[in-house]
Design brief:
Blueprint (H helix, E strand, L loop, with lengths): L1 E12 L8 H8 L8 E13 L11 H16 L2 E2 H4 L10 H13 L7 E11 L2 E6 H15 L1
Parallel strand pairs: 1-3
Antiparallel strand pairs: 1-2, 2-4, 4-5
This protein binds nickel (II) ion (NI).
Nickel (II) ion binds next to β2.
């Protein structure tokens, strides 16, 4: 069974690669490269997979999930300028893809219960654009990495 919890935060960012010129950054990222930055109202959906407990009927304690999203994502990122105030975005371009990966990284270590696992992190940057980080993709990449290393 899949359980999804939603959270929202507002943050500013600018998408630019420091090694590239202003013109090259504008070519790559368009308006997103404006050096003064701009804001988004990000909507996060975190999906966990597990089996409901036979007694409580719950896959997991949803209050706890809400607290973890607050601690790991909303408190550190809400009303922040990501490039200047939130690591690793002082050195990693805070595109939706990279923010979603960072959120996955932060949540993964908090959802290490044998009863359930992190299945998907979906991050909306605008109402018509979202990115997904999926457990299965990461598992495939890890397997591929092992193959390449072997
Ligand atoms: Ni933007």
């Amino acid at each position: 069974m899949f359980v999804t919890r939603k959270a929202e935060f507002s943050a500013s960012h600018v998408c630019r690669v420091p090694e590239l010129s202003d013109a090259e950054n504008r070519e790559l990222y368009g308006e997103e490269a404006n050096p003064n930055g701009h804001g988004h109202n990000y909507v996060l959906e975190v999906t966990l997979e597990g089996e409901p407990d036979p007694v409580t009927g719950m896959v997991l304690d949803l209050k706890r999930v809400k607290e973890i999203l607050e601690e790991e994502v909303v408190e550190p990122m809400d009303h922040r300028f990501l490039n200047y105030e939130v690591t690793p975005f002082d050195r990693v371009v805070p595109t939706a893809a990279n923010i979603a990966r960072e959120i996955w990284r932060r949540l993964e270590k908090r959802f290490d219960d044998p009863q359930f696992r992190l299945e998907r992190v979906r991050l909306y940057e605008t109402s018509d654009l979202y990115v997904d980080v999926l457990a299965e993709d990461l598992a495939e990449k890890a397997a591929l990495g092992e193959e390449l290393a072997a």
